[in-house]
């Protein structure tokens, strides 16, 4: 065991994660780094479209994301639940309603992430599958901006539960009880098919498979 530990306790690892994954990725890295202090870690945080480009150009070891690509030849392993929920400000008229029919959302305006966002893609897929048209309000390139916009009354949005832990705790945002939600998606560990993973990358993959869900599962019950 000591021998193999020595083997992976050096080298470098380049990770890239979706902006939504960034809400829990540092917790994983903290545990991993403690175990393998000799591995130099580099983390890029960006949206889905950029992650797909990085996979395509082979410029990253491993990617954590919510919506793996279909047009790049990758291995994608689900490692944790990623529930998507509808968020509203606490004073929204629907805040205390139960079992809101999904179609009711077509009367609301939605704050949107940019084209290229995995969250946006997942959200559009959800409504398209149900034949529901939603009204697009303002568009913004950051989860933080979306949350502030929803809080300020600019509209509802659909976000990963992982991104709103603090807002739920402090009741700055609430989750609406809408039929079909939470949209039960998964987080994926993704890398190019056939890529020879370095010992550091393999160690991280094994670590995510075995422990990510224990370390970072979303706290709020939905
Ligand atoms: P994004 O992240 O919305 O920032 O692209 C989520 C994802 O890849 O699913």
UniProtKB/TrEMBL annotation:
GO terms for molecular function: DNA-binding transcription factor activity; transcription cis-regulatory region binding. Signal peptide: none annotated. Keywords: DNA-binding, Transcription, Transcription regulation. Belongs to the LysR transcriptional regulatory family. This is LysR family transcriptional regulator. It comes from Thiorhodococcus minor. The lineage of its organism: Bacteria, Pseudomonadati, Pseudomonadota, Gammaproteobacteria, Chromatiales.
């Amino acid at each position: 065991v000591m021998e193999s530990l020595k083997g992976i306790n050096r080298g470098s690892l380049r990770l890239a994660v979706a902006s939504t994954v960034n809400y829990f990725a540092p917790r994983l890295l903290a545990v991993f780094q403690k175990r393998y202090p000799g591995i130099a870690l580099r983390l890029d945080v960006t949206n889905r479209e950029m992650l797909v480009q990085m996979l395509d150009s082979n410029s990253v070891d491993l990617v954590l994301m919510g919506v793996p690509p279909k047009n790049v030849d990758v291995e994608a392993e689900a490692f944790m639940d990623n529930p998507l929920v509808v968020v509203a400000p606490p004073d929204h008229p629907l805040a205390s309603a139960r079992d809101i029919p999904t179609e009711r959302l077509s009367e609301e305006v939605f704050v949107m992430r940019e084209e290229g966002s995995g969250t946006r893609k997942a959200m559009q897929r959800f409504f398209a599958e149900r034949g529901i048209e939603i009204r697009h309000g303002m568009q913004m390139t950051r989860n933080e901006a979306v949350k502030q916009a929803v809080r300020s009354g600019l509209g509802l949005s659909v976000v990963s539960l992982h991104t709103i832990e603090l807002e739920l705790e402090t009741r700055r945002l609430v989750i609406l009880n809408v039929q079909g939600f939470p949209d039960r998606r998964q987080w994926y560990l993704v890398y190019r098919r056939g890529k020879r993973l370095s010992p550091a990358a393999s160690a991280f993959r094994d670590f995510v498979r075995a422990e990510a869900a224990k370390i970072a599962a979303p706290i709020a019950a939905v």
